[in-house]
Specification:
With 237 residues, the chain is mainly beta. It contains 1 helix and 16 strands.
């Protein structure tokens, strides 16, 4: 019966490739008795095809292939019967994408988390270094967390001895990526209790208030004081 093939595959398949070089997909109608128009889809979106590239044979080219194309499905189907189709999933392989550096400043006694976002296919593995030496993880203060593309190092209650450059190195079969974190641990800041600050503010406010009241009372008394008149005696000579 009527069927399709993509790159000589009559059933759905996965195509492994690497990022960079282009990939060509060729869809062919087989066992047809008439001209058949073809459609291409990238996931759920239709691919625009030129006239002359739609009937019986249709070719598309993905160029350049990038890591964003990994896991994307391309489907060729008959226009008049879209149940007749063949899909191909791209398996794009690429090394860990991780570069750069970052500086962090933290107060002594606080916690900090260093995060590496490193996508790769196949999945990479992370190692942490401090000042170019393998980091010895203190179980009670260091914690490592890892998913397929996120690698984290958490330091609890940072100390002055934690100052230094931490490096996240992610390796896979295709290469490696790295990122530096320059950590600076500052002296712990002196914090006054909020209750003491409020109490001091109240004392100052009351002192000022009483001073104003006392001054007003003094002025008021001066203004109210009765005037004294001297008595004059007139002596007639």
């Amino acid at each position: 019966g009527l069927e399709l093939s993509v790159n000589n595959n009559a059933a759905d398949f996965t195509l492994s490739t690497t990022s960079g070089p282009p990939v060509s997909l060729s869809c062919l109608v087989q066992n047809n008795s008439q001209a058949e128009e073809l459609l291409w889809y990238r996931e759920d979106g239709a691919v625009d095809l030129r006239d002359g590239n739609k009937v019986n044979v249709s070719n598309i080219c993905i160029s350049p292939v990038s890591e964003d194309d990994n896991g994307i499905t391309f489907t060729c189907m008959l226009k008049r019967d879209q149940s007749v189709r063949v899909s191909v999933i791209l398996d794009v392989q690429y090394p860990p994408l991780l570069t750069g550096e970052k500086s962090l400043t933290i107060e002594e006694g606080k916690s900090v988390t260093l995060t590496c976002d490193a996508k790769s296919n196949p999945q990479g593995q992370a190692n942490w270094y401090k000042n170019n030496d393998t980091l010895t993880l203190e179980q009670d203060r260091y914690q490592v967390y890892q998913t397929s593309d996120v690698f984290q190092l958490s330091i609890k209650k940072a100390q002055k001895s934690d100052n230094g450059t931490y490096t996240c190195v992610v390796k896979s079969a295709l290469g490696e990526g790295r990122k530096d974190f320059h950590l600076i641990v500052e002296d712990k800041k002196t914090v006054f209790p909020m209750e003491a600050i409020i109490a001091a503010a109240v004392v100052v406010a009351l002192t000022v208030l009483f001073g104003i009241v006392a001054r007003r009372e003094k002025i008021f008394k001066v203004r109210k004081a009765p005037m004294s008149y001297e008595k004059f005696s007139i002596v007639l000579l």
